[in-house]
Structure formats: structure tokens, C-alpha cells
């Protein structure tokens, strides 16, 4: 992000320089002009789906979000044909699962990053770093199958919301590792040196000096990681079917979430009341993810370490 | 240290958001009059349920078939006026899952598109009886007609026979104006549009029942064994929603789908001629297929055997029956009361009539009386 | 920074002073706290390595019994019949082809577009627009895949019909563009377009990162020689960024390979015994969509095993693609350092 500032700042300067270098042949000028047009076009093309999706979601379901009931009631006792009820059960389920996922993924992720930056060396460090990259690329459906194979087939548990959290942990850990790692690297070595010079042991230096300095950056990374896993649907399909009433127990029974609410509602898209609810859930999900993203960016703005 | 504080503030905000959302409500009783009028509503509904005492005090959970989801949600919604304080939840996770949970004792009753099996090396019935400590009963509750839905501009009335269906869904008849189709649709102008059959790509009870029908009524044309997985030709789409919307968007498309989905999507619905003339799909004509079914179980176990090849006039033969699987004697008296109250409401003429509007066929009276005898015998 | 995409190609570059972080070993006194904390950090690293290993091992262990009972050739058969535990017959030929072609196609669309957008953000956009533009493209990553699926299947699909008809009319004689009669809103080609939109933010973010790092000296040198802006980009920025773009493409490909819900919502599946076709205007199922579509029916170990074996192949596929991306990044580092 910040690297971008420096370059976009320097380019106009250099560009101004070139204009003084005499005339250019017309075909080269045309090519240059064409390239500029193509770049603008590419950006505008990318904006089409974004605007289209957001407009669809807001127009088809946005109005439901303005009702207080949407945020405070579940779908218990509401049929597909009836208006009313809300998505409280699903919003709550999504947030609870996200919180549980973060609770497990953040310590693993931060500690792994600490290992990579502060402790690691040699071959094992490279193996860990490589594995983090591989984990980044593990498709959510594979993570879900893995948890299914362990949790349900091997350990014999039922499908439950907690199993989803385990699958999401696999997806969230690499994001946390990478962003934390980046932040830790930005902590000036002078801070560490000063701390060591005062005779502070290494672990205290890390926990009292390095991690607090990088704290807001790490929080940003965690929020972005959460935003990434919250919209995941594949693990939910395999590990925790939809539930239309409020349920807060991760370890027993089913739990509704926004993605599964959308998936369940998709069966009756021809019914007006139901289809509006589906788009409204989609809208809510996007809003939740955007809020996390914005929060992350806001916090990163206070981050003194950002390059 | 300023940084740390900002981080903390954000963490507090996140926790706060969580806490805020944690106070949602499951109470969706409609209308403001409900809170004051609940006693009187309970009074009028008491004929069936026997007042508050008959509702049981334990929340009822059930799980299973997706085919009856819309029907049972409607019944749950209506049940609020009978037993205002009783909470019933139903999870449509599939028949197999429902039976599994029932056998594990995790749900009060299960919804299943097929009765408990006790043959072919399967021991569902025995396992369920063991879990209950008493025989488990299959109680037919929801009749879901499977419609043959099509999309053909200008054709409002279309008749198909089992043999034609078998050929169409195996890709042997490929255009709508095929002489064989024209022969049973005299007086209808059929276009030369290619036929595009759609099938369910996920394994489904609807596919199983439809292929049972094809096998039962046109065995010469349909060779494949009935199964949850589609064995014919065509384009596969996920779930009922997938096939229904595909037909809606495809000129010349045809599929088999729950009646409700065909109605919601405003698709053409073909009449079926099993040999005794074309029969339109209505609640009554589908109900006749249930009335004509043989009860296969013993006593109050109302396992039905459908006759797909029925030639009785006015009977729509392609139906799917969803059973509620219950214990004949519950270990917990309150659960028994709750299940009885809810199922009695579900089987009432009123509730059955309501589900007809959303694409199910009401149980015919003679079956309904057997059903309510069985429900009342639950202990 | 790694922003919404969760991946970065510049992670491993040394800090601003070009120094490696302090080893700090001499500060470690072997005290209990140090041993505990160091051990915990190392333990977390071990957990990560163990997780990836376990994914492979568990999938393999659960897939083996079904693979042993499989009477079809797993790699070349087009059949998928797992309903009868005593007569398993499944192969991944179709799944593999559809998965690979849809992802590659998505990559072919997303990479040129993403590179252009990255250049736009780093070099063409007016200064006030650059940052908002980057955020807007990142927003595409904030839309969950289920919403893409819903939007693609219900809203956009119908508009793809003329595009498909055009290609079939013009290039229908090539097997890749053959007309199979599948409706436009449910073909591999259409899902590739949706997938391309989904991986666009990844490709853009990563390309942006490397383009922004092009040494100013290189660019100024090109401009000083009289190059136009486009020539400067072609001669200085693109060559510098090439490894980054390649790894961005690979990471995007990895994402597309594993995409589930959108594919499941959009693409039609084919019945058993449908004739083989190379056409992208055909239906089909990817590994991920096949598994997710049948997740409700995992009722016997042999059936589950068959789907897990498909998941295993997908895992291996993404592993290879991501490993290639990683290797390209490593080589780039060796080049820049």
C-alpha cells in the first residue's frame, strides 16, 4: 500500500521530464496513447462486475436490512412464503464461528510468525515458510474434507459448528502468519538491540517490545484474515447444515450462518419473500466482511510501522 | 503504547458486536394480538391438542427429508396458535441424516422419504426400535407429487405417457414435435424445438421416486434400477432450485420436480396418461394415488406401498410420500406429548389443506384417519 | 502488504536497510521463560508443518480402501458410480479436465486484465485515484464466493448467450468450441468468466506489489533514453515484474482450482455415459463442486472414500501449483538481491 504512494508520486515527475526530450515518431505516440486507453479500460472493466454485484444485492435485499427485526429475530416459525423474521441466528452463528476460529488461529499464527522472524533459522525455517505458502493455497473444500476425515470419520463425532471452525482455522492461519511476519520484520532492530542491551531476556523483548510495537499491524492482519474466512461456504456445506433458529452452542446441534442461510434459501428463489431474504443475507454478509476490512484498514492507518 | 490502546479498543468493539448480536430472539409470533389472544387461541385449538397440558413441556426437535421442508415449516408456523409455548424445530438435512440422528436418540422424530428398512442387510427398523425401547412407526404425513415441468412457448396443455417420459429422459425422443408425442397430444400444435431434459445432479429422493415410477410403469423402456442417482440422460443441476430455474430459462426444457417448485416458477405441468386417460396434477388426483396404496406395515406402522402403474381413472401416479418416524412409546412422557400434539396438528384437515396451496397433496381421508389413530396411540 | 488476498510475493524481501533481523541468540540466556516461549514458537511452526502433512496423510489413508475396491481406472475412467459399496467404479478423467480447463481459462482472462489494472494503479492513474482504485479492486475479494455464484447463476447467465453463440458460430469447428447444446448460463466457459472475476483481485494485488517495486533508476534510465511511457513500462517495469506476475498467475490458478460454490451453482453436470467432449461450451463438474454437491450423501465409508480420493487429487494439484509459484518467487529473490 505504502510502496504505491512513493511510486505513484515519482512517476508524474519523471513523466514531466520526458516531455522535454523532443518529438517522438507518430506510431510510437499512438502506441503510447493506445496503451493508456487500454489501462483505463481494464480498470473500468473490472468495475463492471463490482458495481453490478453490489447493485444487485442492495437493490434486491438491502431494504430488509433496515428493519430492526432483521438484526434481532431468527427464522423460527417463518415459512418461505411469509415475510418477516430476521437473520439474527445466522449473523450470530457467523460471528461466533469467526470468533472461535480466531481464538485458535491467532495464537498459532502469531507464534509461527514469531518463530519465523525471531527464532527460526536454517532448513526448518524454510520448511515452515514453505508449508505456510502451501496452506495458503489449500482450497476450502479440501480443508473441509480433511476435518471431515478426522473429526467425523476417524473420531466419530457428529457434524457440528465447531468442526467448521477447525476447517476455517486451516484457512486463517496462513493469513495471520504472513501479515504478522511482515509486521515483525518492520520492527526496527534498534528496539531489540536497546532491549537486549538492558539485559532483558529474548522472550520478554518479544512479548513486551516487539509484539506491542507491531500490535496494530497484527490486529489488521487478523481482521483481514477473519474477513476472508467468514464468507467461506464449502466447509459449512460439508460440516454443519443450516439451522433456522438461534443456537449458540458450537459443540451440540446445528448452527445457522449467513452462507448456509443463502444456500438453503436458494431452493426457493421463485418465492418473492424468500428470495428477498436470500439477497438480504448476501448483503448482510458483504456488509460484515466490509466492516472488518474497513476496521482493518482504519487500524493500519494508525500503524507507525507501515512502510 | 498508543498503538496498543487502539488495538484494544478495536478488540473491545469486536467483542461488543458479538455480545450485541447474541441477544436475538426466536419469537416470531405474528401479529400483535397474539400475546393477548394466546389463551383463547389455545382454547379453540384444544380440541385436538387438549390445552396447554397436552402440548408437553419439552422442546421438540426433528430432522430429515428436505422434500417436506416447506410443508413442515408451514405446520410449525400454524402450530404456534395451538401450543404457543411449545417450540418445534425441523432441520432439513436429508432423510439419511434424519434416520441416523433418530437412531442415535438425538431427535424426537425423523422425516424420511422412505420407510425404515429392515431388508437387504439394512437394520434401520431394528436399530430405531432399540433406540426407542419400543417399535418405531412410519407415519405417512406429507404427499409431495412430482410434477413433470416443461417450458414450451404456446403450449399450455401437454400429455405424456410413461413410455414417452422414459424415452425423453433417455434422449431417445429429441424434438417436441416427434410423432410419438403428437400422437397422444391431438389438437395441440407442438413446435420443432429440441427437447432439453434436466435432472438432479445431487443424489435425491425425488430422483429415486421418479425412476421408481418409470421402472414401475414402463419397465420395457426404462432398464436402470431406481436409485437416488440419475441414470438417464440430460443436463444435471444441483437441487430442485437448479432444475426448476434451468427449465424456466430454457425453451424446450423439461424436468421432474416437486410440484411446489413448478408452481412457484410458473412452469408448464404435463398431464400424465397411465393408460386410463390424461390426468391433471391436483391435490385430489395425487391424493388418490395415496388412497390406492397398500398399507405394508403392521398395526400402526403405516408403511405404504405405492402402485406406480395404477390405471385407475383420475389418479396422478408420480408421488413421493414423506414419513414421520416416531417411537411408539417414548422414554420421556413430555416428549411424547409434544410429538403427539404437533403431529396431530400436522395431520389435521386444516393443516393438510394449507400445504396444498404450496404444492403438496393433502392426505386422503381414509389414510388420515389411520394416521390419527396411530398418532393417538403414541405413548 | 498482504491485504485481502492473504498472499504476498514480497514477504521474504529483506527489510529497508537490507539487513536480516537480529538473530538475538546471544540475548537468549537459557532461562525458563526463554525456553518456554522459544519452544512455543517452534511448536507453532511444527503445528503448521504437521497440519499440511496430516491433510495429505488423512486424505490418503481414507481414500486408499475405496481406491483398492475401485474396479475402474481411477485416472482415465469417466464413470462415477459409488452408490453400491460392493461395486465401486469411479474415475476422475472428466473432473480433472473440467477443473483444469475452467481454471486455466479463468487465469487466461484474469492475468492480462489484472496486469493492466496493476499498471493502471501504479503508473497511469492520477495520484488521487490510485489508492481508491486499488481499494475498489480489492473490494472484489470481499464478495463471498456464494454471492458470486448466486449472481452468476441468476443475474448474469442470460447475458452470456450471445457471447457463446458468437464463439460457436465463428470457431465451432475447433473441438474446444464445439456446440454441445448446453445452455449458456451453465457452461464451463461462463464459469471461467466468473472465476476470472474472483481471482482478479489476487492477480492485481500481487502484480501491483512487484510493479511498484521497479527500481526508479531503471524507469528513469528508460525515459532518459527517450522512451515513451508505454516503452518504459515494456522495457523496465514488465521485465522486472515478470516473475511476480507468473507467481501471481499461479496463485490465482490455485484459487480457481479449488473454487467450490460458484462452480456448483453455475455449471450443469453431465449424466453418466455422456459422450466425451473437449468443448468449453459444455457442462461438467470440478473436483470441488462434485464433492460439495454430494456432501449430504456421505453415508458409507466407501462412498466417502471415493470423494476423499477426488479431494486428494485436488490437494495435490493445488500443492503443485502453489509450489511452482513459490519457486518462481524464490528465484526472483535470488535475482533481485
TrEMBL record, chain A:
<feature type="transmembrane region" description="Helical">
    <location>
        <begin position="209"/>
        <end position="227"/>
    </location>
</feature>
<dbReference type="InterPro" id="IPR000515">
    <property type="entry name" value="MetI-like"/>
</dbReference>
<feature type="transmembrane region" description="Helical">
    <location>
        <begin position="95"/>
        <end position="117"/>
    </location>
</feature>
<keyword id="KW-1003">Cell membrane</keyword>
<dbReference type="InterPro" id="IPR005672">
    <property type="entry name" value="Phosphate_PstA"/>
</dbReference>
<keyword id="KW-0812">Transmembrane</keyword>
<dbReference type="Pfam" id="PF00528">
    <property type="entry name" value="BPD_transp_1"/>
</dbReference>
<feature type="region of interest" description="Disordered">
    <location>
        <begin position="1"/>
        <end position="26"/>
    </location>
</feature>
<feature type="compositionally biased region" description="Polar residues">
    <location>
        <begin position="1"/>
        <end position="17"/>
    </location>
</feature>
<keyword id="KW-1133">Transmembrane helix</keyword>
<feature type="domain" description="ABC transmembrane type-1">
    <location>
        <begin position="91"/>
        <end position="296"/>
    </location>
</feature>
<protein>
    <recommendedName>
        <fullName>Phosphate transport system permease protein PstA</fullName>
    </recommendedName>
</protein>
<dbReference type="InterPro" id="IPR051408">
    <property type="entry name" value="Phosphate_transprt_permease"/>
</dbReference>
<feature type="transmembrane region" description="Helical">
    <location>
        <begin position="278"/>
        <end position="299"/>
    </location>
</feature>
<feature type="transmembrane region" description="Helical">
    <location>
        <begin position="129"/>
        <end position="154"/>
    </location>
</feature>
Automatic annotation (TrEMBL), chain B:
<feature type="signal peptide">
    <location>
        <begin position="1"/>
        <end position="24"/>
    </location>
</feature>
<feature type="region of interest" description="Disordered">
    <location>
        <begin position="25"/>
        <end position="45"/>
    </location>
</feature>
<keyword id="KW-0813">Transport</keyword>
<feature type="compositionally biased region" description="Low complexity">
    <location>
        <begin position="25"/>
        <end position="39"/>
    </location>
</feature>
<dbReference type="Pfam" id="PF12849">
    <property type="entry name" value="PBP_like_2"/>
</dbReference>
<protein>
    <recommendedName>
        <fullName>Phosphate-binding protein</fullName>
    </recommendedName>
</protein>
<dbReference type="InterPro" id="IPR024370">
    <property type="entry name" value="PBP_domain"/>
</dbReference>
<feature type="domain" description="PBP">
    <location>
        <begin position="54"/>
        <end position="349"/>
    </location>
</feature>
<keyword id="KW-0592">Phosphate transport</keyword>
<dbReference type="InterPro" id="IPR005673">
    <property type="entry name" value="ABC_phos-bd_PstS"/>
</dbReference>
<keyword id="KW-0732">Signal</keyword>
<comment type="similarity">
    <text>Belongs to the PstS family.</text>
</comment>
<dbReference type="InterPro" id="IPR050962">
    <property type="entry name" value="Phosphate-bind_PstS"/>
</dbReference>
From TrEMBL, chain C:
<dbReference type="InterPro" id="IPR035906">
    <property type="entry name" value="MetI-like_sf"/>
</dbReference>
<dbReference type="InterPro" id="IPR000515">
    <property type="entry name" value="MetI-like"/>
</dbReference>
<dbReference type="Pfam" id="PF00528">
    <property type="entry name" value="BPD_transp_1"/>
</dbReference>
<feature type="transmembrane region" description="Helical">
    <location>
        <begin position="133"/>
        <end position="160"/>
    </location>
</feature>
<dbReference type="InterPro" id="IPR011864">
    <property type="entry name" value="Phosphate_PstC"/>
</dbReference>
<feature type="transmembrane region" description="Helical">
    <location>
        <begin position="180"/>
        <end position="203"/>
    </location>
</feature>
<feature type="region of interest" description="Disordered">
    <location>
        <begin position="1"/>
        <end position="27"/>
    </location>
</feature>
<comment type="similarity">
    <text>Belongs to the binding-protein-dependent transport system permease family. CysTW subfamily.</text>
</comment>
<feature type="transmembrane region" description="Helical">
    <location>
        <begin position="306"/>
        <end position="329"/>
    </location>
</feature>
<dbReference type="InterPro" id="IPR051124">
    <property type="entry name" value="Phosphate_Transport_Permease"/>
</dbReference>
<keyword id="KW-1003">Cell membrane</keyword>
<keyword id="KW-1133">Transmembrane helix</keyword>
<keyword id="KW-0472">Membrane</keyword>
<feature type="compositionally biased region" description="Polar residues">
    <location>
        <begin position="1"/>
        <end position="11"/>
    </location>
</feature>
<keyword id="KW-0813">Transport</keyword>
